[in-house]
Amino acid sequence: MRTMLLPLVGLVLNTPLIAQGTREDYARAERFLPWNADSLVLNERVAPRWIGETDRFWYARDLPDGTEFVLVNPAAGTLGPAFDHARLAQTLSDVLGRAVEPNDLPFDAFTFSDAADSITFSLQGDRWSCALVDYTCGKAQPDPPDGTSPDGKWTAFVRDYDLYLRSTESGREIRLTDDGTRDWPWATRIPSPTLMVRQGTEEPEAGVAVAWSPDSRRLSTIRISSRGAGTLSMVQHAPPDQVRPKHYTYFYPLPEDSILPTAEYFIFEIGTWEPVRIPLEPVPLQYYGGPRGVQWDERGEQLRLVVTDRGYTRREVFVVDAATGAPRRVIEEIGEPYVDIFAGTQLRFLADGAEVLWGSERDGWRHLYLYDGVGQVKRQVTSGEWVVRGIEHVNEQRRLVWFTAIGREPGRDPYLRHVYRVGLDGGTPRLLTPEDADHAVSFSPTGTWFVDTYSRPHIEPVSVLRRASDGSVAMELERADISRLLATGWRRPEPFRAKARDGTTDVYGLVWWPSGLDTTKTYPVVEQIYTGPHGFFVPKTFSAYRSTAQTIAELGFVVVQVDGLGTAGRGREFHLYSWKNLGDGGIDDHIAAMRQLAAEHPFIDLTRVGIFGHSAGGYDATHAILTHPDFYDVAVSSAGNHDNRMDKAVWNVQWMGWPVGEHYREQSNVTLADRLQGKLFLAHGDVDQNVPVSATLQLVNALIAANKDFDLLILPNRAHGFGRDPYFIRRRWDFFVRHLLGVEPPAGYSVTGSVDN
After folding, report:
1. Based on the domain organization, do 548 and 664 belong to the same domain?
2. Structural domain of residue 566, as residue ranges?
3. The pTM is what?
4. 357 within 8 A of 401, measured Cβ to Cβ
5. Closest of 28, 88, 113, 2 to residue 552, by C-alpha
6. 356 - beta bridge partners?
């Protein structure tokens, strides 16, 4: 990759030069909204559905006029229709009393029988089954209820906070507990307020929290105590079914709370019925739901648990004797200053628990380590200045592990995923996906094959079937068709590399151009920002064409995104820049990169710069305009967590530390509100379950106290995911057009589409 962008070449000669911020621009921008842009690219990715434990799979192939389901048999080297679409369409037409087209069947997913001679799918709220011999169809048995044992004989459920079992054969009920209360229930996760709003109650139905052993002899469950834990209140100001607002109280742990909800683990054995408590310290819960990282061994003799302390300084893996409940610690990971739980848990038990494969950053880079069954490290399996992203498959007999990693291939974007194979007993990893691209993969249950879709933001996807033995391509499955996209005049976004604020460290970004780019004009810059240290966020795949950034570029802007210091994926030293330092956000790195872009492309006007972000990006956008008013002129901030003391503990404590210190207050946007000089547009949903609306309203209060002008939009009945709300999208476009382009937006423009919440 070159240090900076090459001069633009290959302009679409037939693309007319356009004005900026016009109604025509809005219409073109709307075409690039995700729900519209999806139709512009066919077969962007093959998502294989493996059939049982075999190597066969099916996938949905996009056609110009619909969808075809394709069946692949890797061993035979065959690819063809999964069934006779025309015959099935005719049967369903007869059954439903309406015309069904072969390329528009009324389902998008199905399950093959073990013999692949029938399929089942959901249709109009029921399960249906169709025989592929004579194409007869009928309603099938519904899926078993949540909490049903693998053998189908028992269903676990909660009634009045206690745990019960019901025999599916006789209907007999067995009460397993008798002391459950609202703030100390059995087998019940902490409910999200979104679920409360959806069901209209503070005690919504949320399913039973149990995990059955594979042999159905035992089940594990949790008991969560929320006694004394802090709550928040949510007001649904304009409920659709009544005039009076609705009020919900819910548990929401904050970083400074002295009491958190806690969970304890229990095991029940069929026939004995008595609860066996696993004698571990209650696990602190810092968000909704319940503890994660629970799995049974194949024999149902051991329960395996991953436990993290409140301050993220220790993670432990326990193996629990299912008969006695006695725990044995097999891994203890201690991190200074933290153990990163957001990097995922690379954990695989081998040889029935005699060995354990575990991912750790202990040498400064996330790598795989092999433990024995009693907690001693046998060896470091991978090493080097690169990052393991995930374990894809392990062949215990051959002592091999397949994994995805980033940053290992010299001269390439260090965030691109590749697949490797290495021996558990040592050796040099072998690259199996050589293309200079990001590789999204899915391994077959046997590990013999994997499907690989590879692309870059400016290079269309190719999906292939590879042999896991050496990565060789056995079959090309699909090559994305982007002809419709190109017909719009769309210009490929460009990845780039620049120097960070220190003039030495490489940072990587992406720039989106307007379709009708005219280099004789000047273009304001709008930065898309999200700097949460839990990941890196500049798109690395072709999906960038349907990014929000492209829609804004179409209005007459150059849009830029950069992953600066403090984001993940580049090793621990790079990552730790954000420790207790979320306010930095890598913003100085972003500014340095944009200045280098402008030096390369004189039509980029850095005297007019905007910025926008959602959630943590909403915090970032506001923080940028408050702390760098000499560079940023306009900011749109949606659902921002403007004060990390007022945001969920599960995320903030990981990066800002615990206990809460003065740095929390110093980096709060509320504290800095009096610094506002530019144009700021704040937006929030009134039933946001992830970042409470009070986070924005506390900032509003501070801005008013500082006598600052700003724009505010509260969206009724919108939860956290309103970034695709059509009205908000149009208002964001208007704000940038009005304040960066200096023209009035087209009056009354209406964006059509759906709302994600």
Report:
1. yes
2. 23-41+484-741
3. 0.95
4. yes
5. 28
6. 349, 371
Clarify whether residues 476 and 580 are in a common domain: no
Task: Look at residue 556 and tell me whether its pLDDT is greater than 90.
Answer: yes
Give me the helix-helix angle, 587-600 and 616-627, nearest 10°: 70
pLDDT at position 15 over 70: no
* CB 617, CB 700: distance < 8 Å: no
Cis, bond preceding 514 (omega within 30 deg of 0): no
Q: Which long-range contacts (CB under 8 A, 24 or more apart) does 594-598 make?
A: 594/525, 594/527, 594/560, 594/562, 596/4, 596/498, 596/499, 597/4, 597/5, 597/496, 597/498, 597/511, 597/558, 597/560, 598/525
**What's the pLDDT score for residue 757?**
66
Classify residue 78 as exposed, middle or buried by CB count within 10 Å of its CB (0-12, 13-18, 19+): exposed
| Bridge partners, residue 393, by sequence | 402
d(CA 154, CA 173): 10
195, part of any domain: no
* DSSP assigned state of 362: T
Those residues with Cβ within 8 angstroms of residue 383's Cβ, 6 or more apart along the chain or in another chain: 363, 365, 367
Question: Cβ contacts of residue 159 below 8 Å, gap of 6+?
Answer: none
Max CA pair span of the chain? 81
Mark 462-482 as b/e (b = at least 16 C-beta within 10 Å): bbbbbebeebeeeeebbebbb
448 plus 549 within the same structural domain? no
Assign 213 to helix, strand or coil.
Answer: coil
Say if CB 265 and CB 231 are below 8 A apart.
Answer: no
Distances (CA, A) of 522 to 491, 558, 606: 17, 10, 10
Judge contact between 464 and 473, C-beta under 8 A.
Answer: yes
pLDDT at 87: 98
Helices vs. strands in the chain: H and E counts, helices first:
13, 42
Question: What is the count of structural domains for the chain?
Answer: 2
- CATH of residue 638's domain is 3.40.50.1820
Dihedral sign (CA 10, 45, 563, 729): positive
Q: Using pLDDT thresholds of 50, 70 and 90, give the confidence band for residue 20.
A: confident
**Of 58, 55, 114, 118, residue with least CA distance to 88:** 118
